[in-house]
Design brief:
Blueprint: H1 4-18, E1 20-22, H2 23-30, H3 34-46, E2 50-53, E3 56-59, H4 61-71, H5 76-87, E4 95-98, H6 102-117, E5 126-130, H7 133-139, E6 145-149, E7 153-155, E8 160-162, H8 164-171, E9 177-180, E10 184-186, E11 190-193, H9 196-207, E12 212-215, E13 227-230, E14 237-240, H10 245-253, E15 257-260
Parallel strand pairs: 4-5, 4-9, 5-6, 9-12, 12-14, 14-15
Antiparallel strand pairs: 1-3, 2-3, 7-8, 10-11, 11-13
Length: about 260
Amino acid sequence: MTSQSARLTKILDMVLEQGAAKVEQLEAALGVSAATIRRDLDRLANQQLVTRVRGGAVANPLSGDLPLRYRQANHGRAKQRLARAAAKLVQPGDIIGVNGGTTSTEVAREIALRVSTDSAFEHESLTLVTNAVNIANELVVRPQIKVIVVGGVVRPNSYEIVGNLSGVILENLAMNRVFLGVVSIDSARGLFNDDLLEAEINADFLAAAARVTVVADSSKFTAVGVARISDFSLVDEIITDSVSAEDRAALAQHGVEVIEV
């Protein structure tokens, strides 16, 4: 039988991708009873992940609109898969950091879903630090997640907060792990963004974390970014969907573990 956590994930995916789903449709797709589906929908509705309607559920604009738009970006399905793998690394009581961007937003959504559906987080919550206002907006309604937003100026193209205030706050925080989305990865030179100010804040996130996990689909290994975030000295692992043998070997020399999912 499908676990409740996997079932809730599938239900939420179907509701967000289609905008709505009927109990009968979910029942057929998942092979469980209508009563089970209704209980699952009620649980997702209680977490404000969907809105219950007669006979099923519709996407909750607050929690679903931004992630749904990001799903339509290039490599959207790969990003979802990578985000799920990243979310599995989160443990109750962790203090984690997430920067802005499409991949990081998917990671935040998957973390929110895991925390909302995993009973291990009911007695020990999670703290999430971010410089992305869209991520803060989505996660602030989750009772099991304490959200810390770094201060500064919001950039409308990425929803990221930048500026000296962000760096000052991050200097005074200690995080178990940072999940970092990047514009490009050069296996010889390091991690890159396409904006100097965002690259500075990303570097501050790395410096404040005990462990750094880069989440990047395969296109990031051929993309070009103009602003270097960091070399690989602070990077512990990269979660990706595909990597060439040459890049894997180069990253191994830097001590970076590559996790393909």
